[in-house]
Amino acid sequence: MLRGAALFALGAIATFLFVGLQSAPAELEAAPPAAMQQQAAPEFLNPSSRIPFSEAVRYDGTLYLSGKLGLGGERGIEPETRAALESIKDALERHGSSMDRVMKCLVMLADIEDYGGMNAVYAEFFPENPPARSALAVGGLVSNAKIEIECLAAA
């Protein structure tokens, strides 16, 4: 008996849904699903034609910043971390964002033993509301850099 009642209930629900879909307003039928609606194109921000990638891409309120090395000055984890974060700060500001709008960072270390030194300098740049972060050791970085950092920020 319960089985027959369950089948009757399912049939009634299916009929209700079918009738409801047939009588939907025309403007709802004509609108494409949100996933198919056209979105603004990404904006590729590349100040130099010498590099084969964009420094940043702005899309849908987010700024995706390419990885930054801390080369050009003193070598070592602390000075390279500081230089990489200064470079990130500069790029964010040039593209209309700031360090306090960073939501996520990925830190790549040539040597995981440098984690403590990196972390001490990193904390200076994010004293309040630090962004989400991942840190990992990699097999090597360009130009024997000790660190590379990439970030996502609100645009």
Beta-strand level of the residues, as a percent range? Answer: 15-25%
Tally the beta strands.
6
At the fold tier of CATH, the topology name of the largest domain is 60s Ribosomal Protein L30, Chain: A
Count of discrete alpha- or pi-helical segments spanning 4 or more residues: 4
Structural class: alpha+beta
Number of domains: 2
N-to-C span: 61 Å
Shape: globular
**Level-2 CATH architecture of the largest domain:** 2-Layer Sandwich
Provide an overview of this structure.
The protein is of the alpha+beta class and 155 residues long. The chain folds into two domains: 2-36; 43-154, 60s Ribosomal Protein L30, Chain: A (2-Layer Sandwich). 35% of the residues lie in helices and 24% in strands. It has four helices and six strands. It has helices at 2-22, 26-30, 77-94, 115-125, and strands at residues 43-45, 56-59, 62-69, 102-109, 132-137, 147-154. A six-stranded mixed beta sheet has the order 1-2-3-6-4-5. Strand 4, helix 4 and strand 5 form a beta-alpha-beta unit. Helix 3 (77-94) runs parallel beside helix 4 (115-125). The longest helix is centred in the first third of the chain and has 21 residues, at 2-22. The N and C termini lie far apart (61 Å). The relative contact order is 0.16.
Q: What layout of secondary structure does this protein have?
A:
Elements: H1 2-22, H2 26-30, E1 43-45, E2 56-59, E3 62-69, H3 77-94, E4 102-109, H4 115-125, E5 132-137, E6 147-154
Parallel strand pairs: 4-5
Antiparallel strand pairs: 1-2, 2-3, 3-6, 4-6
Helix pairs in contact: 3-4
